[in-house]
Design a protein that fits this description.
The protein is of the alpha+beta class. The chain is 56% helix and 17% strand. The chain is built from ten helices and twelve strands. It has a five-stranded antiparallel sheet with strand order 2-1-5-4-3, with helices on both faces. It has a five-stranded mixed sheet with strand order 7-9-10-12-11. A two-stranded antiparallel sheet has the order 6-8. It is rod-shaped, with a radius of gyration of 53 Å. Bound molecules: adenosine-5'-diphosphate. Adenosine-5'-diphosphate (ADP) binds next to helix 8 and helix 10.
Length: 476
């Protein structure tokens, strides 16, 4: 089943909300009308009762002295007629014994039982009773000294009821109109938002199919616009990542083919000239070197591509930098001597908070470059110090330097300034990319401090664990 569209849901919600408002309003207004009507009727009836009492009492006092009940029986009908004219209401008078002594509608045949109310009124209390559209209001008639009888007013409610129903009907119509109008207006309004959402949805769908966005999908500035912007950035990021990855894979296959082609060429030559001793000697040398290069490349490519995945393999600890660097200089000394390069340590006590294995890879690559891209009789100066809570390491050489325009690119995988020179020395163009990645994984930074008159790399590492996430590392 197709789910209900968001614009229908929203506009229905809006319509019901407004309907509820109208309903609550109508309840209060109608209740108010009812209360007002009630108190007006009570006031009016009380007033009429007072006037009736007054005129009966007055007439009794000025009449020749007779007994109160006799007086009422004699004059009751007249009083009822007069009071009815005066008040505009149907009036009935009762004697002390509860017998009718006057009725403004003499032939009245309606047989409303007001016995209960009458009993109350005979006991000196005001009582009223509601029947259909009438109120029977019964009140004692006070003579001088004691109660003479009871007067009853019949008040018709039909006018009040008509007014009440007119207002109630008005509210019903208003409610219906508000419901319809707010639904339509809400629907029109939310349609715009819904079409924006649909547009975002289509954009996401296109990205899924590999069609990347060329601009943000929405022109609005609100939250939906921001979401559109975010989707656009995401699309761009994915596209860049994919094209970076494609380029990386292209480079990997290209770079791997070169040594394999060379090995294959030697093996074919040896098949052709199995007796050629000089060729064999040459082949052994070259095949060995190419195999070494392949091994090195495979190692670095694997490290580069898995560095993202195996975070748990990093075990940061306080690493004594002076001791570690001295150890590494010792390991690479033989190579330095072969190249006629001197490694000069200028080390100070100090720790870095990092994974020891990663530090070894980082420094070995940099020391190796310092030797490879150096000149006969050149130097590589290795120094460290602590500054502003960071452990700084500098590896500076007196070698060939890096052209200014290559400065930005040397950290890219497979980038080499000079393919031939790099190849001669067994380089793959992956060393600095790995150095950068591993350093940043440790919460460190690496930069080129100098490119003329030799090259200097400056690295910084945290000295102690920080609770901030290191650059390029997301909390998972
Ligand atoms: P490679 O395996 O070719 O040495 P790297 O990634 O280590 O690859 O270095 C990339 C390129 O940067 C090198 O090919 C070289 O041209 C340049 N480079 C790196 N280190 C130095 C250095 N110390 N002096 C001069 N050039 C360097």
């Amino acid at each position: 089943m197709r789910s209900v569209s968001i614009k229908v849901k929203f506009s229905l919600f809006l319509a019901l909300l407004l309907l509820l408002t109208v309903f609550v309003l109508s309840v209060f207004v109608l209740r108010g009308i009812q209360d007002h009507q009630q108190s007006r009727i009570e006031k009016e009836l009380l007033q009429q009762t007072r006037l009736a009492n007054l005129s009966i009492k007055q007439a009794f006092m000025i009449s020749p002295p007779i007994e109160a009940q006799q007086f009422l029986r004699a004059r009751g009908q007249q009083f009822a007629m007069d009071l009815a004219v005066y008040s505009g209401l149907h009036v009935v008078l009762y004697g002390k014994d509860g017998k009718k002594v006057g009725d403004s509608i003499p032939l009245n045949t309606s047989s409303y039982g007001v016995d209960n109310a009458l009993r109350f009124a005979l006991e000196g209390k005001i009582a009223y009773q509601r029947e259909d559209a009438s109120i029977f209001y019964l009140s004692p008639i006070q003579g001088p000294g004691q109660q003479m009888g009871v007067i009853q007013f019949q008040y018709s409610l039909s006018n009040d009821q008509r007014f009440y129903h007119t207002i109630a009907g008005l509210f019903v119509w208003t409610g219906a109109a508000v419901l319809a109008a707010s639904f339509i207006l809400g629907y029109l309004y939310f349609s715009r938002a819904a079409s924006s959402i649909a547009k975002l949805n289509r954009s996401a769908e296109r990205i899924r199919k590999g069609e990347f966005l060329t601009r943000p999908p929405l022109g609005r500035r609100d939250e939906l616009g921001q979401l559109g912007q975010a989707i656009y950035y995401m699309s761009t990021e994915i596209r860049n990542n994919i094209s970076g990855m494609k380029q990386f894979i292209g480079n990997v296959s290209h770079e791997f083919k070169t040594p394999i082609t060379s090995i294959k060429a030697y093996s074919e030559l040896m098949e052709l000239y199995p007796e050629d001793a000089a060729l064999a000697e040459d082949a052994v040398l070259h095949i060995g070197a190419e195999a070494d290069r392949l091994t090195d490349m495979i190692d670095k490519v694997l490290r580069l591509s898995s560095a993202e995945k195996y975070d748990f393999e990093y075990r940061p600890e306080p690493v004594d930098l002076a001791a570690l660097l001295l150890d590494l200089i010792g390991r690479i000394k033989a190579k330095a001597e072969r190249f006629g390069v001197e490694i000069v340590p200028r080390l100070n006590p100090g720790n870095a908070w990092a994974d020891r294995e990663s530090l070894i890879h980082i420094f070995m690559n940099l020391l190796d470059n310092g030797i490879k891209y150096n000149v006969q009789g050149g130097k590589v100066v290795v120094s460290n110090r602590e500054e502003k809570g960071r452990a700084l390491v500098e590896i500076a050489d007196t070698g060939i330097g890096i052209p200014e325009e290559a400065r930005e690119r040397v950290f890219e995988p497979f980038y080499t300034v000079n393919k031939d020179r790099s190849r001669q020395s067994g380089g793959t163009g992956l060393g600095l990319a790995l150095v950068k990645q591993l350093t940043e994984k440790q919460g460190g930074t690496v930069e080129l401090a100098r490119v003329e008159g030799g090259t200097a790399f400056r690295l910084s590492f945290p000295v102690r664990p920080s609770f901030r996430t290191p650059p390029n590392k997301e909390l998972t």
